[in-house]
Each structure stands twice: as structure tokens, then as C-alpha cells.
Design brief:
Length: 351
């Protein structure tokens, strides 16, 4: 993969909502790749490939997985622009939610109209804080299918103000803190204000999972647990996480090689999903993880050989526990996986 131009293409699609990366896994065109953004070709590793010849089939992919084009296996990966959290309010629950979200590597934007509370959001780690009336700040948030809105304001009137705007934006999730009675009142008022009933029905209020939360930290935990639950059930992979992209960009800057390993299929009980990535760096360190344990260790060993030039620069490899056969491996550890590994060269061309 020409990672210099691929990263540039990915970075250029700031307004795109839906991505599909297709990669040829085998045959003479192994490693050929194509990126679709909102259904349009944004980048391709070569002008004429099996992928460019089968655009219509790729555009019909609604989930991630291995498909066959002709007699060749191709990995099609659908991912979004990256989950992001928008928190309206700057009280104790909001501050706890920011801290927990950062532990989960979620970018956070905080909205607060009181300067001292806005400063508190910055101190707790929010990536971006807008200090202005809520309606003014929300006008600067376009929303997306990867945006998770949490309304945690200090008063009912502010909840209504925020929700009237948020429920007209694209969103992966909208939740509001409040009692059941207050939540029903808000729903009635939003319906009376003429908001789309279908959107109002999708409002998570009271916000969070029902775990009996009482303290600010417990409420924040219930909120983030609900967001993780919804995020994990969506038919999208994690794509290229900020950690992976930062490490990849560093390799590009230093002109050093790395190996990108992607889970393209999995069987049985595995900790990571299809599309999960790990970048193996020349010093043996990694960004991301494909699940840890013996299988990740063996993947890292193979990557080191690829970087040393003693193994082919592109590999489709199967990993289990090393027992006599896959059935015994599944019985012993619960799963196996296929990884596609490719050397990303430090120059402009892939090796």
C-alpha cells in the first residue's frame, strides 16, 4: 500500500461519513487496495485492478468481511469517520464522563456556557471546549453518524434547548440525564415543538445503562457503557484508530518501515473483531492490538521477519494455538483468526 498517498487521501475526507477499504488478499494482485468515501473512489493503489473492475459489487457491501471477486478473495472493510463524543454541560457527571471517555480513547468536545465550568472540562481532558450559549456552540457541531451526544446540563430548559438542535443533526446516539418523569416531559415538549417523532423516540432518556448508578462516577460509567454497547453493535469496524494513524504518520515522517496487520476473518471466541489493526514498528513496539496472547506474539514474530526481508512483504496468515489442527485449537483456546500483513515502506512506494 502506498501509505503516503493513502493517509493523505484519508485525511482529506474530513466531511465523509462512510468509508470502505477493499484489499486483494491473494494472487498476482495481492495487496492492491481501493478506498471508497461515501460511495466515491477517493484513492486506489493502481489505476487498473480487480477492485476498479468490480466497483459496483464493492459499493453494495454493507458489512465487513471476505468476499470473492471471480476466484480471488478480497477483504472489504466498512468503517466510519471515527467515534466522537459531544457533552453538553460541565458539572460533576460531565467531568467524570470526560475522564472515562479519554480512558477509552474517545475524542471529546465539551459545551458549557459558564467560563469556570468550561475551564474544568479542559482540565479534565476534553479535546475541545466551546464556552458560549448552548445554541451558539451546537451550531458549530455538524453531527455525523459517528457522533455521540450526551446532554448533561444543569436545568430542564437547557436540555430542551440542546435537544431541539441535536435531534435535527445526524447522530449515532443522543442521551439525556434526568429522571423518568423528567424524560417523559422532555419527550412531550419535543413532540409539541414539531420534532420528528422517530428521532425523539431514539432519545436515550434517562441516559445510561440501568446499573443502579448513584455517584457522578457511577453515572458516567453507565453512560459510557451504553455508548460502548451501541458502538460495538454497529456494522462498522474501528477503521484506522488515532493511535494507529499517529504511529503510521510518525513512520512516514522518519521514513522507516512498519507492518500493518489486519484481522480479515475470525472463528470461535476471539477478543477482537474483523477489521482490528495492529502496526508493528521496527523496534518491535506496536500500536494497537489484535487480541494479545500467543496469536499476537506469532504475528509480531512474522512481522519482524517481513521487516528484515526474510519473509514476503505481504502475507495472508492463519493463527491458532499451534496444536495439531484447527478443531483442537478451537477447543483449547476458543478461536482462530486470519491476518493480512503488509510492509508499509518509509518511502512513497510500498515494498
Amino acid at each position: 500500500m502506498e501509505h503516503r498517498t493513502f493517509l493523505d487521501a484519508l485525511d482529506a475526507q474530513k466531511d465523509a461519513q462512510d468509508f470502505l477499504l477493499a484489499t486483494v488478499l491473494e494472487g498476482q494482485q495481492q495487496g492492491a487496495a481501493l478506498l471508497l468515501c461515501d460511495g466515491q473512489v477517493a484513492w486506489t493503489s493502481a489505476p487498473e485492478t480487480l477492485l476498479t473492475q468490480n466497483l459496483s459489487a464493492l459499493k453494495k457491501c454493507t458489512t465487513s468481511g471476505v468476499l470473492t471477486l471471480g476466484d480471488t478473495r478480497v477483504f472489504a472493510e466498512r468503517f466510519g469517520a471515527g467515534a466522537r463524543l459531544v457533552i453538553c454541560g460541565g458539572g460533576h457527571v460531565a467531568a467524570a464522563a470526560v475522564r472515562l471517555a479519554k480512558l477509552l480513547d474517545l475524542p471529546v468536545t465539551g459545551l458549557e456556557d459558564r467560563p469556570e465550568y468550561a475551564d474544568a472540562l479542559r482540565e479534565t481532558g476534553a479535546d475541545r471546549v466551546l464556552c458560549a450559549p448552548f445554541e451558539t456552540s451546537l451550531a458549530q457541531i455538524p453531527g455525523s453518524t459517528e457522533t455521540y451526544f450526551c446532554v448533561l446540563t444543569r436545568a430542564h430548559a437547557y436540555d430542551i434547548t440542546c435537544l431541539k438542535q441535536i435531534l435535527q443533526k445526524p447522530a449515532a446516539y443522543v442521551g439525556m440525564m434526568g429522571s423518568r418523569g423528567r424524560s417523559e416531559l422532555v419527550r412531550r415538549q419535543l413532540a409539541e415543538a414539531g420534532l420528528d417523532p422517530a428521532r425523539v423516540a431514539r432519545l436515550h432518556a434517562p441516559i445510561g445503562l440501568a446499573i443502579g448508578a448513584k455517584t457522578a462516577q457511577e453515572i458516567a460509567l453507565s453512560i459510557l457503557a451504553q455508548i460502548v454497547e451501541i458502538k460495538s453493535h454497529r456494522q462498522l469496524t474501528e477503521g484506522f484508530t488515532p493511535e494507529i494513524r499517529a504511529a503510521w504518520a510518525q513512520c512516514r515522517q522518519e521514513q522507516t518501515d512498519a507492518v500493518l496487520a489486519t484481522i480479515v476473518s475470525r472463528h470461535g471466541s476471539m477478543p477482537r473483531e474483523v477489521g482490528t489493526k495492529m502496526l508493528i514498528l521496527p523496534d518491535g513496539s506496536t500500536a494497537g492490538s489484535v487480541g494479545g496472547g500467543i496469536m499476537e506474539y506469532r504475528a509480531r514474530q512474522l512481522a519482524e521477519k517481513m521487516l528484515a526481508g526474510t519473509e514476503a512483504p505481504q502475507q495472508l496468515a492463519s493463527f491458532a494455538t499451534g496444536l495439531e489442527d484447527d478443531e483442537k485449537a478451537l477447543a483449547a483456546c476458543g478461536g482462530s483468526m486470519e491476518l493480512f500483513l503488509q510492509v508499509l515502506a518509509g518511502g512513497t512506494e510500498a515494498k
